[in-house]
């Protein structure tokens, strides 16, 4: 068991650089999630850990071993692919045992390990089937089983749930979390789904355009984002951003028709800032106001009200309880000042107060 | 009349006739036979739709029947008859077959055909697969592939002529225009060889021509199949620790097995029917006879229609099971 350390890791395709010097420390036994929009380099980074992509610059080590230029097979990693990547001509059992067979492990040991993995993943009934005869969820379980059997130091998951339907995705998510608890190995998991990231991770790495935007525990990222990108990416529905102007110990927000009394540094005076408010931290003031309810999405337990200000700002509000607004209503908004996030409109960096 | 004009007229009449047939027959069906009006409009439409496919299929079925099915049965009939002077025929039962099986030249042809069957499809498929795999990732791979594919565009007779020159032997004191003899002398051979007259081995010199042609075909199909293998399965195998050979033989080949079988059987059928190459290069002399050339010998040189037809039936008997298997596999691939 061992962690993964990246030191100024760079990836270039010809002249195009896609990963710009990543420094990252993943602890032994940690569940680390790479998250970010498509094209942010998260899959590339994972494939570099796997050894499927060459590392152009910097160094990478697993445990104490420098693996920067090592073959994938020697790195002690196992990978679960988005498309399962099962060998279609082999049975479930052969699929799971293939890695050990390639490394000349004795038959008996392979049998035992496959049996153990199939027990963990409840695949006993399907061992002699071919992948074509399995459902999507079962295929992904076999794919995970193939990784378990090899007993790797690091598990790599490349968007493993993206090809599953919503219901199965939740189920498999729980299963992967359980697996991590049971095996305790280091896991790196790539996803663009922030819900998966929040629910699974010990540590989230938010990536954008080949840079790390922020690293931290899920709730730390949620409560204390470093910049506008992370604030907007973590949390669902996404944080609302409304334009404002910094004043004397206050921010004027025309979109809300309010001035928020907040301890903003005098240096920002007169500068434009983005005011971030999470939908769940907003409450509707039914007494009235100049925000029009444009649309209401009712999910049962919660509703999302899409409000439009006279200035054209769009604000999403989460509503619970029995009294909910209806479309076309004119309402106001209330919130607690300590729930307000401020970002420099120019650099998009967080202004901590 | 000028031949070009004649050709043009043929095209106009032929194409016009086809269009006229389909249009007219369709119109007749809809307007006259089962008009979509009156008290039985619904029933008529249904009936017209049942008949319509057959109207459209009829020309193709008729042509296939006339030029494919009928000749098979006619040949079968001829193989049981003997031609007598004065355009008379006598039924002789299996005598043509028994006579043929007793003939050494036929036995030789059978043996050689088996040899061709074992060597050519295997060699072509293996070489095609090798080329397809080796050129897969190369920058100039597609150029290499087009060059290797080129022999496909040459007729068998043309290829035979090319290779006849390759195997050409000139007297010892003259410059060798045959590449093989030139190389042979270069590497210490004592005198130019008449390669095509060396029994047993000359079969292989003939086979090389067909392999040369069929490798391109195998390569193109297998190259496409290799491209169709999901990249992730290969990557998974890399992570699993398989070396390049294991990836090729345990991951890639099994996934394209269906295509390999189709290519193999297709070449097998072409091999069973091989005629032109042998005809143009040795004409079956020096123990290189094959079934198709034997049939041609009997049918058109000896004018023995009975035995010629019997030989044709034997070839068909050999090809049919492979053809059935080929079609079965090709269909499975398409699913």
Automatic annotation (TrEMBL), chain A:
Q: Which GO terms describe its molecular function?
A: ABC-type maltose transporter activity; ATP binding; ATP hydrolysis activity
Q: Which UniProt keywords apply?
A: ATP-binding, Cell inner membrane, Cell membrane, Hydrolase, Membrane, Nucleotide-binding, Transport
EC number annotated for this UniProt entry: 3.6.3.20
Q: Name one GO cellular component term.
A: ATP-binding cassette (ABC) transporter complex, substrate-binding subunit-containing
Kindly give the Pfam families that the UniProt entry links to this protein.
Answer: ABC_tran (PF00005), OB_MalK (PF17912)
Q: Which residues form the ABC transporter domain?
A: 4-234
Q: What class of enzyme is it?
A: hydrolase
Q: What does the similarity note say?
A: Belongs to the ABC transporter superfamily.
Protein name per the record? sn-glycerol-3-phosphate import ATP-binding protein UgpC
Organism encoding this protein:
Pseudooctadecabacter jejudonensis
TrEMBL record, chain B:
Look up the record and give one Gene Ontology term from the biological process aspect. transmembrane transport
* Main location per the UniProt record: membrane
Provide the protein's localization.
Answer: Cell membrane
Q: Which residues form the ABC transmembrane type-1 domain?
A: 110-326
Q: Which PROSITE patterns match?
A: ABC_TM1
| A GO CC annotation given for this chain | plasma membrane
Q: Which residues cross the membrane?
A: 6-29, 50-70, 114-135, 147-167, 204-226, 256-281, 305-328
Q: Which Gene3D superfamilies match?
A: MetI-like (1.10.3720.10)
What keywords would UniProt list here? Cell membrane, Membrane, Transmembrane, Transmembrane helix, Transport
SUPFAM superfamilies associated with the record = MetI-like (SSF161098)
| UniProt-listed CDD domains | TM_PBP2
Describe its membrane topology. Answer: Multi-pass membrane protein
Q: What top-level branch of life does the organism fall under?
A: Bacteria
Question: Pfam families per the record?
Answer: BPD_transp_1 (PF00528)
Family the UniProt entry places it in: Belongs to the binding-protein-dependent transport system permease family.
Q: What is this protein called?
A: Lactose transport system permease protein LacF
Show the taxonomic lineage: Bacteria, Pseudomonadati, Pseudomonadota, Alphaproteobacteria, Rhodobacterales
Write the gene name.
Answer: lacF_1
């Amino acid at each position: 068991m061992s962690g993964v350390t990246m030191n100024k890791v760079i990836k270039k395709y010809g002249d195009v650089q896609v990963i710009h010097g990543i420094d990252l420390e993943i602890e032994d036994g940690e569940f680390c999630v790479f998250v970010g929009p498509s094209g942010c380099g998260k899959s590339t980074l994972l494939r570099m850990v796997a050894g499927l992509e060459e590392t152009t610059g910097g160094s990478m080590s697993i445990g104490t071993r420098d693996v920067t230029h090592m073959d994938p097979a020697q790195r002690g990693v196992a990978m679960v692919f988005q498309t399962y990547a099962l060998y279609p001509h082999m049975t479930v059992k052969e699929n799971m045992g293939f890695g050990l067979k390639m490394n000349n492990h004795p038959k008996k040991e392979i049998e035992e390990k496959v049996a153990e993995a199939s027990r963990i993943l409840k695949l006993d009934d399907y061992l002699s089937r071919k992948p074509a005869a399995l459902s999507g969820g079962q295929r992904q379980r076999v794919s995970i089983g193939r990784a378990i059997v090899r007993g790797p130091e690091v598990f790599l998951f490349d968007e493993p749930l993206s090809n599953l339907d919503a219901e199965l995705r939740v189920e498999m998510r729980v299963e992967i979390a359980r697996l991590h608890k049971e095996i305790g190995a280091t896991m790196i998991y790539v996803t663009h789904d922030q819900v998966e990231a929040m629910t699974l991770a010990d540590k989230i790495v938010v990536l954008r355009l080949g840079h790390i935007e922020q690293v931290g525990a899920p709730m730390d990222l949620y409560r204390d984002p470093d910049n506008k990108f992370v604030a907007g990416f973590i949390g669902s529905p996404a944080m609302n951003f409304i334009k404002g102007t910094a004043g004397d110990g206050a921010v004027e927000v025309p979109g809300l028709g309010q001035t928020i009394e907040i301890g903003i540094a005098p240096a920002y005076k007169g500068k434009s800032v983005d005011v971030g408010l999470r939908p769940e931290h907003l409450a509707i003031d039914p007494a009235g106001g100049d925000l029009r309810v444009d649309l209401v999405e009712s999910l049962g337990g919660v509703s999302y009200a899409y409000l439009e200000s006279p200035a054209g700002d769009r604000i999403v509000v989460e509503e619970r309880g029995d009294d909910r607004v209806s479309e076309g209503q004119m309402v106001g908004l209330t919130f607690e000042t300590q729930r307000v996030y401020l970002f420099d409109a120019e650099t998009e960096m967080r202004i901590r107060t | 009349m000028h031949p070009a004009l004649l050709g043009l007229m043929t095209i106009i009449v032929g194409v016009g006739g086809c269009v006229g047939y389909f249009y007219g027959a369709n119109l007749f069906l809809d307007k006259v036979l089962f008009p979509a009006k009156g008290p039985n409009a619904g029933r008529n439409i249904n009936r017209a739709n049942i008949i319509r496919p057959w109207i459209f299929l009829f020309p193709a079925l008729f042509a296939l029947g006339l030029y494919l099915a009928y000749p098979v049965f006619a040949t079968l009939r001829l193989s049981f008859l003997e031609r007598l002077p004065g355009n008379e025929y006598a039924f002789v039962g299996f005598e043509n077959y028994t006579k043929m099986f007793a003939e050494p030249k036929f036995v030789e042809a059978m043996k050689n055909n088996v040899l061709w069957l074992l060597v050519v499809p295997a060699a072509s498929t293996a070489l095609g697969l090798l080329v397809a795999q080796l050129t897969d990732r190369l920058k100039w791979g597609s150029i290499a592939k087009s060059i290797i594919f080129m022999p496909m565009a040459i007729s068998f007779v043309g290829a035979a002529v090319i290779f006849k020159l390759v195997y050409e032997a000139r007297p010892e004191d003259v410059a060798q225009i045959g590449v093989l003899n030139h190389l042979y002398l270069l590497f210490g051979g004592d005198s130019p060889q008449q390669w095509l007259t060396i029994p047993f081995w000359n079969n292989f010199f003939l086979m090389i021509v067909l392999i040369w042609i069929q490798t391109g075909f195998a390569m193109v199909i297998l190259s496409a199949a290799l491209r169709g293998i999901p990249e992730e399965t290969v990557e998974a195998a890399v992570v699993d620790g398989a070396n390049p050979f294991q990836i090729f033989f345990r991951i890639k080949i099994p996934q394209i097995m269906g295509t390999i079988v189709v290519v193999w059987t297709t070449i097998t059928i072409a091999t069973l029917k091989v005629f032109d190459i042998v005809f143009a290069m040795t004409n079956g002399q020096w123990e290189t006879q094959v079934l198709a050339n034997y049939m041609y010998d009997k049918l058109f040189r000896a004018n023995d229609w009975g035995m010629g037809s019997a030989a044709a039936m034997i070839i068909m008997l050999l090809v049919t099971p492979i053809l059935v298997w080929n079609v079965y596999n090709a269909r499975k691939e398409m699913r």
